[in-house]
Predict the structure of BTB domain-containing protein.
Amino acid sequence: MRDLSHQQIVGVERRKVPRNISLQNRIIINISGVRFETFKSTLEVYPNTLLGNPKRRKYYYDNVLEEYFFDRHRGCFEAILYYYQSKGRLRRPNSVPLDTFLEEIIFFDLGQDALAQVRKDENLKEVEKAQLPRNRCRRYGDMVPVTALGRLTAVICALAGVGTIGMLVSVLVDRYHRVYNRKLYIKPEQIDFNEFSDEENEDLEMGHGNIHGDSLIVNIDDREE
């Protein structure tokens, strides 16, 4: 869609409105320093929107300048104002990012129809919401701990998990340290196999046999020499 300038928007609006309409129906909207002129009757075609509802838009009215002021995106508002004038046609300007355009649509509360129109034009797919399990016990695991009891339960579960991992790591490290030191620095004749489990005894006995075998080979070599 070709971007409409401020003069074009005002000109189209004036051609549509008869001259005998009172000036009280005229409305000026200031968007970050750029003023747009339209009529209340045009905006009130969509009474559920921010601009179409007099009670909601009055909070943005400046009594000194006699205009409505919004610190919003100027390029987006041209398309939003055209949405009111064209009675439902909404197109994103090429110079406006999609996320910014969606933010402005949500701010001015154009409704689900406007969002659906943009999603269709931009070929966007709505993300389906994941449903919680029907089983009550399983649903408790998917719920966010927002209550005091829920947070306490989450803390206890986290501490229990960390404690379990810490215990296992300490046991494994201690066992490896004892076996490694005994294999390297203790003579096989001084090892008390009753202090180890069956698997550790097998490892030590195999090491013991290898040591005697190596010493026997060395003795034979010495004799041959």
Remarks:
- Confidence is low (pLDDT under 50) at residues 1-17, 207-225.
- Residues 147-224 form one domain.
